[in-house]
Specification:
heterodimer; A: about 240 residues; alpha/beta; Rossmann fold; six-stranded mixed sheet; four-stranded antiparallel sheet; 10 strands; about 40% helix; B: about 290 residues; two-stranded antiparallel sheet; 2 strands; about 70% helix; about 5% strand
Chain lengths: ~240, ~290
């Protein structure tokens, strides 16, 4: 039984249709990459999954029964799905620690707040050093770490990561991907990651879906996608 | 001006500033953190003051105690006012600020008219053991009513700072104006957070309103002279900083008090806005904003 399954999802903004019947699934413990260049609907799909955008059709199921897609974001978090949003969206004038503590806002997460905070400092030692600094003063790479750590404070079963590499220097992109790989190994987290950087995504993902014009154009294991002539043409135009 | 007069003015100014702080703290949350243009804030304080007058008439209660008791119904009032404001203005977006300003101006006006209808335009006061007496320290006479007002102001500030920094909802109140969407992604309902924040801000106004009538007699139009001062203090402080709000209030109190005992006393009412303009020009994030 897949943890998260999306069936024939349609969504858009007003009259602009962005997703035209997307179906995918993420099984327990898997890391799945949502690939494709900008403007093909990756973030729109992420917003639907997180409850920020109401789909105009289709179905989102968690564990095959719980229906999402028509519920507000706070209920999606309560169901066990946390989104690391595009652009990180930290609270810039709150300290790193305050940002993380707010990640445990929901009453079930408050009970384990101190343990999770300790885990976060272990995973991100550099953040422990900067715990009292306001989040807005951190570098882009560190802010991305705060965003991931903050989402983990809610103890999600499924972590959605939207474009973790956007606006980061290549070396920092590799660092963020390393951290996601580490989390995958240590915690057995189920991850769906939207990412346009194919090579970096390929380092940690088990499978991938390539979105083109709001539809799944290709899907398969990352090895298959890497070999695929069609995907290469799509990405490199050659 | 001789030294003794100056020290006298400084001390009186600190006490006055403490009282200004009590009046401004609720607004530091409502406007500074929640982005609600709540110009009816001093009018609500005046409702609290008249509440204390009534409670003394009915039950003979001490005004500060009345303020504490009134905090509960005022919390409910705040929740109701914010819910109405959210449904009718905030949710519709874009020009909520300006139309909200008109809404709260209307609320302030209605509050004033209700007070006139109920109490007439005569001044009302309260009795308490600390009103009309002074603490004499050598050359100085410190009125107990101002000492009580400042002390309660500091207590409100301390409680508010603890609430904002130590509780989940308090932290969420700080976060909600920075990024409401991000907050919802952490499992918090931003509207509920703002409702509670506005409720707490309004609850604190009940107590600071009681201080208003401790400091001096009240009349229905009194709120208007405080609108400018409290907004100046909140913006001067750097929006939403509790410690900054108290310091800015003390600063304004001291400057006003010193000016009052100087030859240019008639300029005193211009101090708040003069200071505000100067700070906004030189340091737009406010004196203590981060």
């Amino acid at each position: 039984m897949p943890d998260l399954s999306v069936t024939d999802l349609h969504a858009g903004y007003g009259a602009v249709r962005v997703l035209h019947g997307v179906s995918l699934n993420v099984r327990h413990g898997e890391t799945v990459a949502l690939l494709g260049t900008n403007g093909n609907g990756k973030s729109t799909l992420m917003k639907c999954l997180a409850g920020l955008l109401r789909p105009s059709g289709g179905q989102i199921l968690l564990d095959g029964k719980l229906e999402l897609g028509d519920v507000p974001p706070q209920d999606v978090v309560a169901a066990g799905i946390s989104l690391v949003p595009e652009g990180r969206r930290l609270f810039p004038r709150l300290s790193v620690e305050e940002n993380l503590v707010l990640g445990a806002f929901r009453s079930e997460a408050r009970a384990t707040m101190y343990e999770e905070l300790e885990k976060a400092w272990e995973t991100f030692p550099v953040l422990r050093e900067k715990r009292r600094q306001v989040a807005g003063s951190l570098s882009g790479g560190q802010q991305q770490m705060v965003a991931i750590a903050r989402a983990l404070m809610a103890c999600p079963r499924v972590l959605l990561v939207d474009e973790p590499s956007v606006g980061l220097a290549p070396i920092l992109v590799a660092q963020v991907i390393d951290i996601l790989a580490q989390l995958k190994a240590e915690r057995g987290l189920t991850v769906l990651m939207a990412e346009q950087n194919f090579q970096q995504a390929a380092r940690i993902a088990d499978r991938g879906y390539v979105l083109v014009h709001g539809e799944v154009a290709f899907n398969g294991s990352m090895a298959e996608l890497t070999e695929s002539e069609a995907v290469r043409v799509l990405y490199l135009g050659v | 001006m001789d030294l003794e007069l100056l020290i006298d003015a400084l001390v009186a100014g600190l006490l006055l500033g403490g009282f200004y702080g009590a009046l401004s703290l609720g607004l530091a949350i409502a406007f500074g953190l929640l982005d609600v243009p709540h110009i009816a804030h001093p009018a609500f304080a005046l409702l609290g003051a008249y509440g204390a007058v009534l409670m003394q008439g009915w039950f003979g209660l001490d005004p500060v105690l009345s303020g504490l008791i009134l905090a509960l119904p005022f919390y409910a009032l705040g929740v109701a006012v914010y819910s109405f404001y959210h449904t009718t203005f905030e949710r519709r977006g874009t020009d909520a600020g300006l139309r909200g300003l008109a809404f709260f101006f209307g609320v302030a006006f209605v509050a004033e008219v209700i007070l006139i209808l109920l109490f007439g335009i005569d001044q009302r006061g309260v009795r308490a053991p600390y009103i009309g007496r002074a603490l004499v320290l050598g050359e100085f006479r410190l009125p107990w009513r101002m000492l009580v007002a400042s002390g309660v102001a500091l207590a409100i500030a301390g409680a508010m700072a603890l609430w904002l920094s130590r509780t989940y909802v308090g932290r969420a109140v700080q976060a909600v104006a920075q990024d409401a969407t991000a907050l919802s992604l952490l499992g918090a309902d931003p509207v509920r957070v703002k409702r509670i924040g506005f409720g707490i801000a309004t609850a604190s106004v009940a107590l600071s309103g009681a201080l208003l009538v401790v400091v001096g007699p009240v009349e229905p139009g009194l709120a208007r002279i405080y609108i400018g001062k409290v907004f100046a203090i909140v913006v001067l402080a750097g929006l939403g900083s509790v410690g900054g709000t108290v310091l800015a209030a003390l600063l304004l109190g001291v400057i006003e008090s010193v000016m009052l005992s100087s030859p240019v006393a008639s300029w005193t009412p211009a101090v708040a806005f003069g200071l505000l303009l100067a700070v906004l020009g030189l340091r737009p994030q406010g004196l203590f904003g981060r």
